[in-house]
Amino acid sequence: MSNVETAAAASTGAKRTLQGVVTSSAGDKSATIMIERRIKHPLYGKFIKRSTKIHLHDETNECNKGDTILIEECRPMSKTKSWKLVKIVEKAPEL
């Protein structure tokens, strides 16, 4: 196997998937989600919440604010969007 074939085989591995809550779906075919994780403070040992906002591509505009969704990494769709919607895990409660 040549170096080119090895690199191609390594790059076609499983794509990363993340789960988060939709914070905004105002744009056409776009949404923003908040992903929260808990980390342990290196000195004091207390668990701290850290969050990351990610922009994603929603082709059918099916997710709404408050939904819990699963996203998958994809090719860059725009300057900030390189994730796409896989499925809606839980719909937000209707008020």
Automatic annotation (TrEMBL):
<keyword id="KW-0699">rRNA-binding</keyword>
<dbReference type="InterPro" id="IPR000266">
    <property type="entry name" value="Ribosomal_uS17"/>
</dbReference>
<protein>
    <submittedName>
        <fullName>SSU ribosomal protein S17p (S11e)</fullName>
    </submittedName>
</protein>
<dbReference type="InterPro" id="IPR019984">
    <property type="entry name" value="Ribosomal_uS17_bact/chlr"/>
</dbReference>
<dbReference type="InterPro" id="IPR012340">
    <property type="entry name" value="NA-bd_OB-fold"/>
</dbReference>
<dbReference type="GO" id="GO:0003735">
    <property type="term" value="F:structural constituent of ribosome"/>
</dbReference>
<keyword id="KW-0694">RNA-binding</keyword>
<keyword id="KW-0687">Ribonucleoprotein</keyword>
<dbReference type="GO" id="GO:0006412">
    <property type="term" value="P:translation"/>
</dbReference>
<dbReference type="GO" id="GO:0022627">
    <property type="term" value="C:cytosolic small ribosomal subunit"/>
</dbReference>
<dbReference type="Pfam" id="PF00366">
    <property type="entry name" value="Ribosomal_S17"/>
</dbReference>
<dbReference type="GO" id="GO:0019843">
    <property type="term" value="F:rRNA binding"/>
</dbReference>
<comment type="similarity">
    <text>Belongs to the universal ribosomal protein uS17 family.</text>
</comment>
<keyword id="KW-0689">Ribosomal protein</keyword>
